[in-house]
Amino acid sequence: MSEATIELDSNTTAATAKCSNVNNNNSARSSRVGSASSGADTDADGQRFGWCGWNPPWLQRFCTAKWALFWLCWGGALQGLIVNGLINVSISTIERRFGLRSRQMGLVASGYDLASFACLVPVTYYGGRRGASKPRFIAIGLIVMGMGSLVFLLPNFLVGNYRATIAEANVCESTGVASNSSQSMIACELNEMGEGQGENLTWTVWLFLAAQLLHGAGASPLFTLGVTYIDENVSKKMSSVYLGIYYTMATVGPAIGYVFGGQLLLIYTDWMTVDPVQLSLTSDSKVWIGAWWLGFIFAAAMCLLIAVPIFGYPKLLPGAEKLQLERVSEAHANISETDDSNKVVRGLPRAVLSLLANPTFFFLNLAGATEGLVIAGFAAFLPKQIENQFSISPMYSALVMGLITVPAGGGGTFLGGYLVKKWNLACRGIIKMCLLSTTVAALFTICFLVSCPNPKFAGVTTGYKMEAGSDSPVLVASCNSNCGCSRTNYDPICGVDGVMYYSPCYAGCAQEEHADNLKRYHNCSCIEHVGWVDEGSPSSEATHFRPDATNRKCDSTCQTLPLFVVLCFILMVFTFLATMPALSATLRCVQDDQRSFALGLQWIKVRLLGTIPAPLIFGALIDESCILWQESCDKDAGGACLVYDNFYISRYMWLLALICKLGSVIFFACAWWFYVPPSKPSNANGKEDVN
Asked: Kazal-like domain location, by residue (predicted)?
């Protein structure tokens, strides 16, 4: 920064001598005149689109702000598709596939923000310096993000095929002597001798974490340098619209990831080597694992493709210098009205102190942290909560999230940027808009109180044969006590009584048959006998037993999902309505030459106080809501949760959302209260801005 300062001072000496009695806003403007006039003398080739000196005339049609926005939008959408879409929609599937807990997946989700936290200072400091190529930083970041996607899918190929069920029939075989615990030991010994399910796969969490670190490092330039690159290459009035489009695409990315990733979960994870029909498995089965890893191959390829055109953009687009001349600073008056702050900040420590002395910037950062906490936490675990709360499949849960996120998140983000432009809001008015929208959003956190009663699970949430259940899970009852069942063989079935059972053995089923891609079970001592039912087609002459149970998931009778979707939709609209205005307020309340670094510093605070601890907090509370854990032969392997308590999981989520939203309201109010606008700020036409 010191070299840039010397150059700036030499270019502005004459201007300063003539304008010593002018206010600080015009002084800041004169410094831009000096830098712009210096840039005007540079070679025109420095503002041409191309690669390695190859910039033919026909390519220059792409060297505009609109085309730059187009490619940056794809980069932002890919970041959302990967980190907030494909990964989040696969969390519950990955937990069941590798026996991981929500705490562990919370650590994985936090890895993205940990890497961003470590990379933001050097990326924004060096990428924001004069002469640095922001597009080059962004393109290299996309390549790194693509590498992260390739690493994320590695665990699927480093472990053996997934065994959804054991090879032999998991039915009740009366032993009369062996206890259930001894049967579990025998099952573990058999697993050790063969390709058992008892293998400890918790080491895969470190590969997932490494992939997320690459994702975070690669995405760090997108929403810092990318934002400032757009802002400095368009007019002040159009900046909000361009940034609104950019952030809208970043919001649409997760929605595409939810829908795309959800559809991939309908494909069996080992579809290349295993036919699920032979296992009598369908996507309705509780032990079904979808092809969660397929989407990351597509994402990695797209990252590499999008990086190519972004590499070709110049440091500044043609006409950017003229736009900078027309800008007027709206920086907080306590900073803009001191002589030192009108100069380029000398060195990193002084830059940090300068920004921390700005109270508006400080409280906007805190508001961003509380908003980031709630958004990051629910982005990671809301699909899982919907899946378990309303007893729907991961695919359907992903579809619901996508349907909410596309219109609510994308529409709210774009509407926020549009309203700032339409109402021509100055910094104070923008902060007031954020305050009002966040207040409304806080009211609609009641959506998380909409819940369903716990699904009936024999021995866990209800007793066997509809008897009253105990406080702690008791899977052994008089109807299965002599079956010698093993807790390591989790193979849930749905009885005709609408109750889920841990396995056919724990349901006391003596017979298993395969038909119509299903496993059907008969003579189940723990399920009330139903009797004879004709299941044949009109041309069939055979009469069959109606099975006592099948290996499908019981249908939920809860009808509150539509109400939850409506309330959550409104919550998301007003949440994302404040994101673009809050960004605009952050950019306007600091000096122009501090914008890149200010965004980097803000994102560090947001990540350190919000998005890094968020998945850890949410994951821990979700684990606290678990009432039945998967049992593994390896005592150190942990295991995924099999049954959650819907009452506690909904209350935990509501309290977290409400506390974070109330914190945002307080911080936006403080930012609005402490903001001191420059004396009579005016726009390029000489009119006062609306505040």
From this structure: 473-528
